[in-house]
Structures are given as C-alpha cells and as structure tokens.
Amino acid sequence: MGSLTVRNLPEAVKKRLRLRAAANGRSMEEEVRLLLAEKSGDAPAAARPESPVSMISAWMSRPEDAPVAARTDNRAKPARQSAEPPPAATARRILLIISGGIAAYKSLDLIRRLRERAYTVRVVMTRAAQEFVTSLSVGAIAGEKPFTELFDQASEFDVGHIRLARDTDLIVVAPAAADLMAKMAHGHANDLATAVLLATDRPILLAPAMNPRMWSNSATQRNLKILLADGVLTVGPNAGEMAESGEVGTGRMAEPLDIVAAVEKRLAGATADAPPSRARPLAGKHIIITAGPTHEPIDPVRYIANRSSGKQGFAIARAAADAGAKVTLISGPVALPDPSGVKIVRVQTAQAMLVAVQAALPADVGIFAAAVADWRIAGDIVQKLKKDAGGPPKLELVENPDILATVSRLKTKRPALVIGFAAETEKVIEHAKAKLKRKGSDWIVANDVSAEGGAMGGDDNTVHLITAAGVESWPAQSKDGVARQLVARIANALNGEPS
Ligand SMILES: Cc1cc2nc3c(=O)[nH]c(=O)nc-3n(C[C@H](O)[C@H](O)[C@H](O)COP(=O)(O)O)c2cc1C
Fold first, then answer.
1. Strand pairing partners for 97?
2. Architecture of domain 286-379+395-494
3. How far is the CA of 113 from the centre of ligand 1 (A)?
4. 36-43: Cβ within 8 A, 24+ apart
5. Ligand 1 atom nearest 179 alpha carbon
6. What is the pLDDT of residues 155-200, one digit of tens each?
7. Contact 275/91 with Cβ under 8 angstroms?
8. Which fold has domain 93-267?
9. Do domains 93-267 and 286-379+395-494 have the same CATH topology?
10. Distance, CA of 63 to CA of 148 (rounded, Å)
C-alpha cells in the first residue's frame, strides 16, 4: 500500500514526503504508512479525503507537516518542528546487501554505525547470508525486516526489487562473497540480491570478504577487474588473520568504520534531490586528452595529414567525463561532435596542439591519443605552389615538437600519470615498450593500426597496456569499451587501489 501510494502522489508532494522521510530517518513507504496510521482518525468522516493519495497530499500541504532538516538522532525527536523550508536533505539512504560469508556478523555492527550517523538502512540478505546471521537480528538492528525473497507476494506485487534498486542513494555489499561477485560480474539475476544489483543505477560499494586463496584466485581477480571496469567501488579486503584457524593473508572484510568512511566519501555533496549517479571515481580530477590527427600545411591549400579519426580520444574524453573528471579535450581536425560535459579546444597543427596542452596544465592525468604529425614543412609557403615545367617541388621537412616527451619531462606541472598512445603497424609491443622508455611516460597504450587491424577510423580497437609492471593485452572491443577500461584503470591508479 505504501509504495503504491507514493508512486501516485503529485511530484511536489513526493518531494516534500522524501525530505520528511529523510529527516525522520525512514523510507518514504514507512513514512506514508505512519502518516496513514497516525492521521486516519483525525478528520471528521464527512471531511476526510477518500483515497490514501488524496489524504497524503492534503496532509503534506499543511505547514505543520513541512519536513524538518536531517539530524543526527533520527528517531528521538518528533517530525514537526518547523514550518520553514529545510536545507536540502543529504542523500542518506543505504541499501545493504549481506551475502554468505563469515564476516556477515560484522554487518550488524555496520548497520548500527550507519544508523548512528542518520542513514536509513534497508537490508537484503541472500539465502546463504541467513546461514550466518538471522534475519531477526538484522531486522532488530536495522529497524525493519530485511528483504530476502525475489518471488515475494507481499513486496513484488509492484515489482519491489526494482524499487529497492532505485529507492536508495548507495548500495553497499558487505560482506561481498566471491560467489556474489562472480554473479555480478556476469550479470546474473536469479535471487533478490543479484536482481537488485543488476537493476540499479545507483553507485555500488563492495566490501569483499573471503579466504585469501579465494581472493587471490585468478577467477576472483578476473571478476574484480570486470566489476571495477563497470564502475563498482571497493573497500578492502584487508590483510590479517582470518576467522578460519591458522589462515593469514588478504581477504578480511574492511572494518565497519572503514566501510562507513567509504560510504561518506562516496555520498559527499549528494542530496536527496540530486542523488549520486553510478560511480564517479574521477570526481575532482582534471584530465587532458589529445585526439585526432594534426594537419601540417604545405601551402595555403594543401597539408600533410594522417588517417586518425579521433574516435578513440573522444571516447576516452566521454568516459572520463562520465566518471566525474573535468576534461580538456584538445583535438586536431576531425568530423566528430563536441562530447557533452567536456571542454574542447580544436587545433590544426602539432605546434598549436602543444601550446594548447601547455595552456591546459596543470592536470592530474595527461592522455596523448592524438596522431601528431612527426614532421612539418620548413618555413612558411604563403602562396599556392604552382605546377610547372620544373617538376614536383622539393619539400623540406623539419621535426615537430614531441608533445608526449615534452609533458613527460616537465619538472613542474607534470601530471601524476602521463599516458601515451603508440600507433604501430608491426612489432606492436616491442615498439611500444621502446616508446615508453624513450618518451618517459608512465603508460603506453599500443594499438595495431595496420590496415588489417582496422583501428584507424574504425569503431573497434585491440590494445595492449604497457606499464612498468608489464604488458596487458586487452580483448578486441569497441573504442568505448577500451575507453571505459582505461578510465577504470586510471581511477584505480589515482586512488592507490589494485589495478
Ligand atoms: C562456513 C562457511 C563460511 C564461508 N565463508 C565465506 C566467506 O567468507 N567468503 C565467501 O566468499 N564465501 C564464503 N563461503 C561460501 C559462500 O557462503 C557460498 O559461496 C555461497 O554460495 C554464497 O552465496 P551468496 O553469494 O548468494 O551469498 C562460506 C561457506 C561456509 C559453509
């Protein structure tokens, strides 16, 4: 009844109800249920509105029901305190998913710590989780019964799992068992927890917890990589002694207070009206990206160019902006529209590109994906070259500035992470490794631009990431896929997390 009523309320009333619920530390449905219970007898029968929707709408228009600001003790004080509009309520709704691991006992403390900080906590428990802690204990600490069943007649009459997935600001999975991570990585949805995780558009924070061998197993590490690339955030696991006797290693779930700190970091600045979107791990970072070819004039009408389309650099700019970064995209001449949320500087030549890069510094990351022409014509030819009996003109070439090497060697203002692209037609990895050394960059993304590879101008790319740690060959995928994977790696590197 509560959720049906909420859905049918006018938007303005819904907004006030949301603020009131957040201020009181309750879900909107809970608030509706309480209002209906509390108020159903307070008006004479003849004057009483007929439907729950009109009743709620009428009550929520009264000044006495104006919401109050969120406060630390969310249950102790009555809701009606002020008719003044409150400051924007902060985003404080957590959906905690408890999966089947020994660390599930720590989830009880996590719920308590979150509620102490005025978060409303709804809980979903997997079947395995209920083998470790009872839904009774969880319900008692969370203040409401945990959700356990996907096919639940009581909550699924209006597709409750989708509502659970959306009616929250952040989903925390603690403990995140190896099995649940595997299901998430591969898009399973065969129980309530996995269906909610697949249906959500909210950020997800995982607190993995498992035996060290399970954690270091290449299957778990593969799944982790997929999840990180999908924008899922992690806290822990920590190293130390495991619950199983005699086992020591990495796999302990992060402590509840560390998980709370990660929650607070993720929700910083988000409000009930502007809840956080899916992971923005590059928020606050400035990234400079170059893209496309350069055009080096021969005379006023002719130029030297290459076949770069700019698609890979533009895809990286979009992915970085989606991840919350401030992006300056410096592009040579391409036929691509400006990506939204990105500052774009369009240039023609290598020299102009270098000037634009220098003007855009400082930055946290520099990604040099442009196919910059190595040479330009010596001097300025101001008139169109004429075809005459003397035969073709002899063009003298001089070297262009090396943008990647210049930025890599900056003494001040060098970005913390400098990434170059190597376009190779043969011995791709060998040449890229040499380029990494020669240019002094931190990473090189090498791609095969031979005609067979189809990377130049195409929509797909097959790349190798070369870092000090070695060579990683990524599967063939779309340029958007490469961009998302690269951005996830950058976010991990900047946050000092495993890549
Ligand atoms: C005693 C016991 C302890 C377990 N502890 C863990 C654990 O800490 N981490 C983990 O990933 N799996 C652990 N498992 C295995 C999971 O419970 C099992 O993979 C289960 O299918 C997880 O289901 P879920 O992901 O739906 O919660 C444990 C199993 C048992 C019997």
1. 124, 173
2. 3-Layer(aba) Sandwich (3.40)
3. 24
4. 36/1, 36/5
5. 25
6. 655 556 777 888 898 999 999 999 999 999 999 999 999 999 998 8
7. yes
8. Rossmann fold (3.40.50)
9. yes
10. 38
Nearest CA to ligand 1 atom 1: 102
Note whether 462 and 474 are within 8 A (CB).
yes
Check whether 69 has a pLDDT greater than 50.
no
Atom of ligand 1 nearest to the CA of 103: 8
% of the chain beyond a pLDDT of 70: 79
As a whole number of angstroms, the distance between CA 68 and CA 78 comes to: 10
Residue identified by tokens 């992915």 is 319
Q: Which residues of 7-19 are buried (b: 16+ CB within 10 A; e: fewer)?
A: eebeeebbebbbb
How many CA atoms within 13 Å lie on the side-chain side of 420? 27
pTM beyond cutoff 0.70 = no
119-155 confidence digits (pLDDT tens): 999 999 999 999 999 999 999 999 989 998 887 766 6
Amino acid identity at 456: M
Residue type, 149: E
Helix (H, G, I), strand (E, B) or coil at 241: strand
Which residue among 223, 306, 400, 461 is the active-site one?
A: 306
Distances, alpha carbon 57 to alpha carbons 83, 152, 254, in Å: 17, 29, 44
Domain segments of the chain as ranges? 2-65, 93-267, 286-379+395-494
447 in catalytic set? no
The pLDDT value given to residue 423? 83
The amino acid at residue 495 is N
